[in-house]
Write a structure and sequence with these properties.
single chain; about 190 residues; alpha+beta; 4-stranded antiparallel beta sheet; 8 helices; 8 strands; about 20% strand
């Protein structure tokens, strides 16, 4: 499954400190949207508490499908589209009450343009996001739905309390019925 993207595996301390000094703390209630698909993204943020789901609208069925999550200590936002002035590709919504420290696109540009070290950090963040998406894509080919479910639960053990079975199934790209079968197999076997 995708690598955790947080302040621990790339040194984001300078960027985090910049966000705290020049940005603002914002709270989102469960279900409140940080960004909306099809609109200009506004924020780059670090999750201090809670977590967010990234949803995309299905082309043919018009239903929301979960494509991504941002957990505590990770960044949250539609990073590439924020930087390049494109419409957001995601609706980003708080799964539980969340607190973030956030900055605007202009502030993020200011940070990256301060010096070459900060510009290199932009490159590292972009590369890391690419690696995350690649890992998620590869997991759809190399891991069974049961294995993907176990990886998700390992990454975020409390997620089953916060999301419906339909939402988890959407993220795993399987039907809710199949997810129920997987959960029963795990519950009643030694294959945990």
């Amino acid at each position: 499954m995708e690598q955790r993207y947080n302040r621990k595996n790339i040194d984001l301390k300078q960027l985090y400190d910049y966000c705290e000094q020049h940005g603002e703390v914002a709270c989102y209630e469960k279900g409140e949207q940080m960004e909306q698909e099809g609109k200009q993204p506004k924020w780059f943020a670090f999750v201090k508490k809670g977590y967010f789901k990234y949803m995309v609208r299905g082309i043919s069925n018009g239903r929301d499908h979960i494509a991504w999550f941002s957990f505590e200590d990770e960044i949250v936002g539609d990073y590439p589209n924020l930087l390049y002035g494109n419409q957001s590709q995601f609706t980003i919504e708080a799964v539980v009450p969340c607190t973030v420290v956030r900055i605007s696109c202009e502030q993020l540009y200011r940070f990256f343009n301060m010096n070459s070290e900060n510009m290199m950090l932009h490159v590292l963040i972009s590369n890391h996001i690419l690696c995350q998406f690649q890992a998620r894509y590869l997991d759809f080919h190399r891991a069974t739905p049961k294995e993907r479910y176990k990886l998700l639960i390992r990454r975020c053990p409390g997620i089953t309390k916060d999301l419906t079975i339909q939402e988890i199934a959407s993220f795993l790209k399987i039907s809710p019925g199949y997810l129920s079968t997987i959960r029963k197999e795990i519950t009643f076997s030694n294959d945990k």
